[in-house]
Amino acid sequence: MATINISFRLAWRALRQNLLTSLVAIFTVSLSGGLFLGAWKTKQSVNLAFAQSAAGFDAVLGARGSQLQLVLNALFHIENSPGNLDWEQYETIRKHPGVSEAYPFALGDNYLGYRIVGTTPDLFLQHQWKPGKNFQVHLPGRIFSEAAKEAIVGAQVAEEIGLKIGDRFHPYHGLEYNPETKHADIYLVVGILESTGTPVDQVIWIPLKGVQMMEGHDPSASNSISGVLLNLKGSSGLALDVKYNKQGDQATFAWPVPAILSSFFNRFAWLENTIAGLALLMAIVGGLIILVTLRSTMHERRREFAVLRCMGASRAVVTGSILWQSILICLMGALGSLVVFLVLSQAFSSLIRLQMGVSMGLPILDEVAWLTGGGILVLGLVSAWLPARKLYRSSLQDSLNPHG
To answer: What is the reported pLDDT for 215?
Structure first.
């Protein structure tokens, strides 16, 4: 125990004497560990967050086109609509025995860049966006009436542009804000949705007929919709997939939503691999910096080590100080990695919520974090091995040699 204590004190003093080099090593190790954790955990968190942000729907029926485009447009309110469906398509799938819920929606307008989506009040009165959770509006608000020019506003929209109950607004044509495309219709805000942490928070919701009959819209589109949000019974998804995607050519059945989203994230695998590769490169650089730091310590303190040896200090004490110095650098680097990871996670989470309305929640430190910390300590021990081995094998005469 005394040997360990003396070695630790020697290492701590060496760390302070080589403060700048030690800080560079700690920073490099922290950045590499933080980037690795960020690349690994962010992928997991984003996949989970998007899977949980589908507002409780199993599938989407829309115009013929890309399933991914349909899901992103209908559930995450990004991308453009692939086209419209006739009302009869909605009635057909609503009555299908394998469908438990069917909610039509229509889009094509915005307010200050926030999408306006038309649907039926049943979406907010009956659907559970999460098991046991219906949509709620802040009192004294209410859900819009089906035949009125009324709107309920997503929580994030209300927070960012200040819409409140009793406010009135003009919709603008198109999905991008253009002040020259203002509709004559005026809508009254009758409710503000409670936050759900899903893209629902980023939308202004109005009655379906409001979008279909909006002044300036093509009258021929008054009996069409952009798609249908669906929940299914049992294994009916397979039969519907065959009916619409294999045999039919009038519509696209996007199912299952998690698998479609997974294909979307696979497109960014190269970015994850690039970040992980960069983290590995920085870890190697960090190890080299630790090695240089320890060799510098040995060179600057060789006479001190010799004096300690003359005073009775064992080789284990002197060698242990080198190992402890490396361990201290890596312990601080491991803690720094967690800080870097948490900062990056918070920044990325805020960006995702701002751009897509998806709440990622707090990052969870699991076995990956512990393995990363262990890997950093192994890196430190490997980096310290050569200097420590050389010091252990050196004789007292070598330490006193001015050219050593």
So the answer is: 87
Q: Are residues 373 and 315 in the same domain?
A: yes
Q: Of 364, 286, 297, 288, nearest to 325 (Cα)?
A: 297
What amino acid occupies position 311?
Answer: M
Report how many domains make up the chain: 2
Q: Decide: pTM greater than 0.70.
A: yes
**Shared-domain flag, residues 244 and 281:** no
Task: Specify whether the CB–CB gap between 7 and 294 falls below 8 A.
Answer: no
11 burial (CB, 10 Å; 0-12 / 13-18 / 19+) is buried
Any idea which residue has 């999408």 for tokens?
A: 115
Give the mean pLDDT per block of 10 residues along the chain (404 residues).
73 81 86 82 73 87 95 91 93 97 96 97 96 96 96 96 97 94 97 94 96 87 92 94 91 93 79 77 79 72 65 71 85 91 85 73 72 83 77 59 52
What is the 3-state composition of the chain as percent helix, strand, coil, each rounded to the nearest 5? 55, 15, 25
Q: Do 311 and 243 sit in the same domain of this protein?
A: no
CA 118 from chain center: how many Å?
Answer: 28
Catalogue the E-assigned strands of 32-73: 59-63
Whether residue 290 lies inside any domain: the answer is yes
Domain boundary among 201, 231, 255: 255
Judge contact between 302 and 308, C-beta under 8 A.
no
Q: What is the pLDDT of residue 187?
A: 98
Residue 1 is predicted with a pLDDT of 57
Are residues 179 and 279 located together in one domain of the fold?
no
Residue 261 lies in a domain: no
Kindly report the number of other CB atoms within 10 A of residue 80's CB atom: 12
Considering the domain architecture, whether residues 159 and 191 belong to the same structural domain is answered as: yes
Whether residue 260 lies inside any domain: the answer is no
Distance CA 7, CA 351 (A): 46
Residue 115 to residues 7, 80, 141, 356, 404, Cα–Cα distance (Å): 64, 11, 21, 12, 73
Among residues 223, 255, 287, the one where a domain terminates is 255
Domain around 331: 2-51+267-400
Residue 146 domain-assigned? yes
- How many residues appear in the chain? 404
